[in-house]
Specification:
Pathway: Carbohydrate degradation; glycolysis; pyruvate from D-glyceraldehyde 3-phosphate: step 2/5. This is Phosphoglycerate kinase. Monomer. The protein is of the alpha/beta class and 401 residues long. Helices cover 37% and strands 15% of the residues. The strands form 3 sheets. A 6-stranded parallel β-sheet has the order 3-4-2-1-5-6. A 6-stranded parallel β-sheet has the order 9-8-7-13-14-15, sandwiched between helices. A 3-stranded antiparallel β-sheet has the order 11-10-12. Strand 7, helix 8 and strand 8 form a beta-alpha-beta unit. Helix 9 packs across helix 10 and helix 11 runs parallel beside helix 12. The chain is elongated and about 70 Å long. It binds adenosine-5'-diphosphate (ADP) and 1,3-bisphosphoglyceric acid. 1,3-bisphosphoglyceric acid binds next to helix 14.
């Protein structure tokens, strides 16, 4: 998929023009509405600055959370406008709505180089329904469209897909372009050996990805809450560990498929189990054949870490999605931290390392090695769908290069 980007727009395409830019400003907030991680805002800056630098009037829009078509005060984009203004070093004109008279009036007064931010598009149910009339209203305040919301590119919503029917050109921003470069290259044309590490707790949504990855990778390392479904499928006792009962047959068939395809499918050989799901739970390391009744596996064990590190050491490309354990609890963060450090070392030796998924990114941030990875994806769901080979509607709708 080769799409036109902001780089293809000249100063005359942009000077004095109103550009609707879809960003993904869905950032985490604490209880006092302070932004706790502004990665997604920073990631949108190159596109915004390229546009303002060429004299465009930049009208930003985004969703925030899942307000389900209602105005929710705690889901307003006000904290984002403030942070964005600090990062850009210029005022951001904040609108209280995303369509309507107030928006038209504010946009009508914009000067070249100015930046405005519309209110949360998901305050209208029409956004997620990709309602054409709503998309047309959003589009009516602009001359052209830039989509840079990689984290939302897998959603066919009015602000990601619908508006492209009314605005030409419709092009990709620098963030989407960069995400595609890394993620598509990793699956279509990787330096080999290629390994994928899949962990976390969203077993049912990720087990399908594992199936697709088996067609592409040389090694597949599985950790986190995913592993117990595989163990149970092998007939092992998993105590109170996370298991998706309806995926047992699939887990069994994936092990068979991996063998048939010659893919090295690695599951941990030992796990750290806890007597309850708590940071101060009692913990012990056991082999996977000896998980005691009533205990739950919350991390991979030291032997598994060694086996995983050995398997990764020769890899030239590694894609990681999902932590190895409950890294939010220090006692069960050891496996995740060790793998994060190994990937940082690998990057230093010239490998391409790609991290996707909100919690995996949080884990590498926690270890302090985020800047030692080749690419940190801003989209969890979007990067997975891309790795699965699915078409992302927010990107498919953009102009061909
Ligand atoms: N063994 C486990 N049992 C239960 N939860 C786990 C286990 N290992 C990891 N997790 C949890 O998985 C969550 C992340 O899963 P997921 O959302 O799939 O990852 P990501 O956001 O990186 O895609 C974390 O909150 C972590 O605590
Ligand atoms: O945070 C997001 O997705 P992610 O958690 O999969 O990275 C995006 O903003 C998409 O949000 P959505 O899953 O509510 O459509």
């Amino acid at each position: 998929m080769s799409k036109k980007t902001v780089a293809n727009l000249s100063a005359s395409d942009l000077n004095g023009k109103r550009v609707l830019v879809r960003a993904d400003f869905n950032v985490p907030l604490d209880g006092d509405l302070n932004i706790t991680d502004d990665t997604r805002i920073r990631a949108a800056l190159p596109t915004i600055q390229a546009l303002t630098g060429k004299g465009a009037k930049v009208i930003l829009c985004s969703h925030f959370g899942r307000p389900k078509g209602e105005v929710k005060e705690e889901m307003r984009l006000t904290p984002v406008a403030q942070r964005l203004s600090e990062l850009l070093g210029q005022p951001v004109i904040k609108c209280d709505d995303c369509i309507g008279d107030e928006v038209s009036a504010k946009v009508g007064q914009m000067q070249p180089g100015q930046v405005a931010l519309l209110e949360n598009v998901r305050f209208y149910a029409e956004e997620e329904k990709n309602d054409p009339a709503f998309a047309q209203k959003l589009a009516s305040i602009a001359d052209l469209y830039v989509n840079d919301a990689f984290g939302t590119a897998h959603r066919a919503h009015a602000s990601t897909e619908g508006v492209t029917r009314y605005l030409r050109p419709s092009v990709a921003g620098f963030l989407i372009d960069k995400e595609l470069k890394y993620l598509q290259n990793a699956v279509e044309n990787p330096d080999r050996p290629l390994a994928a590490i899949v962990g976390g707790s969203k077993v049912s949504s990720k087990i399908g990805v594992i199936e697709t990855l088996l067609d592409r990778v040389d090694k597949l390392l599985i950790g986190g809450g995913m592993i117990f479904t595989f163990y149970k499928a092998r007939g092992l006792n998993v105590g109170k560990s996370l298991v998706e009962e309806d995926k047992l047959e699939l887990a069994k068939s994936l092990e068979v498929k991996a063998k048939e395809k010659g893919v090295d499918l690695l599951l941990p050989t030992d796990v750290v189990v806890a007597d309850n799901f708590a940071p101060d739970a009692n913990a012990q390391t056991v082999s996977i054949e000896n998980i005691p009744d009533g205990w739950m596996g919350l991390d991979i064990g030291p032997d598994s870490v060694k086996v995983f590190q050995e398997a990764l050491s020769s890899c030239k490309t590694v894609i990681w999605n999902g932590p190895m354990g409950v890294f939010e609890f220090d006692k069960f963060a050891v496996g995740t931290e060790a793998i994060a450090r190994s990937l940082a070392d690998l990057t230093g030796k010239g490998a391409c390392t790609i991290i996707g998924g909100g919690d995996s990114v949080a884990a590498v941030e926690k270890v302090g090695v985020a800047n030692q990875m080749s690419h940190i994806s801003t989209g969890g769901g979007a990067s997975l769908e891309l790795l699965e080979g699915k078409v992302l509607p927010g990107i498919a709708a953009l102009d061909e290069a």
